[in-house]
Write a structure and sequence with these properties.
Length: 228
């Protein structure tokens, strides 16, 4: 299921977009200001971000720039009531993939969303090998190698490693990992993530001098080569 973040301060417009997208089977989250939207976009996984330009606390153009620094590939569609050429150019400069002038037809928004999702899938197929510091994960064959030595992982370990390799050098909280890898919200009192992280460490790090999976006490985990 594709997840979409809608950043829009006009409650009525946000609800309308949300309704339209949910009818199409998307899962949506609404943020009513730029600051909240930016934080959600950085902390969570979304397949597409739809953002208004004129927003309280942080405008859509600054938001787009800042999110792009952390997540260069996430598709962003900008909405605006102004629709002047200057805004359009600035929006694209900031890294927006597409642009819609309000008021727009929801069907038009669906067409743009589908096009962006399709483009992203094609990109992912082309770049299907994740590589980091001698570690390789082929998303197509599911073969994992470190320094050309094959490592055998269970499907869950594979999914966990894939998520970490897609988000390197960033602290990943247990909540985020639970949501993204297990598709569940983290229930306090369970330590299943730590258990899986230990399995993964034994296979990925134990026999190698450089360790890639690290615990950040009180915060979560980070996938990083500290000697780089
Ligand atoms: Ca607005």
């Amino acid at each position: 299921m594709n997840k979409i973040l809608i950043i829009e301060d006009e409650q009525r417009v946000a609800e309308l977009i949300k309704q339209g997208l949910e009818e199409q089977g998307f899962v949506t989250t609404i943020a009513n200001d730029g600051q909240t939207g930016k934080q959600l976009a950085i902390d969570n996984h979304y397949d597409i971000i739809i953002t208004d330009i004129i927003l309280p606390k942080m405008n859509g153009i600054d938001l787009c720039r800042e999110v792009r620094l952390q997540k260069p590939k996430i598709p962003i569609i900008m909405l605006t009531a102004l629709g002047t050429t200057d805004d359009k150019v600035e929006g694209f400069d900031a890294g927006a993939d597409d642009y819609l002038v309000k008021p727009f037809d929801l069907r038009e928004l669906h067409v743009r969303i589908r096009a962006l999702l399709k483009r992203n899938q094609t990109n992912n197929l082309q770049g299907f090998i994740l590589k980091y510091s001698g570690l390789e994960l082929n998303l197509n064959t599911k073969i994992v190698k470190r320094d050309d030595k094959e490592i055998s992982l269970t499907p869950k370990e594979l999914k966990l490693l894939e998520y970490m390799m897609q988000n390197p050098e960033r602290v990943l909280s247990r909540t985020e990992i639970a949501e993204q890898v297990w598709d569940t919200t983290f229930d306090t009192g369970t330590n299943f993530i730590d258990v899986y992280m230990n399995y993964l460490r034994k296979k990925v790090d134990k026999d190698f001098y450089v360790k890639l999976i690290h615990t950040k006490p009180g915060l979560g985990f980070i996938f990083k080569n500290y000697s780089l």
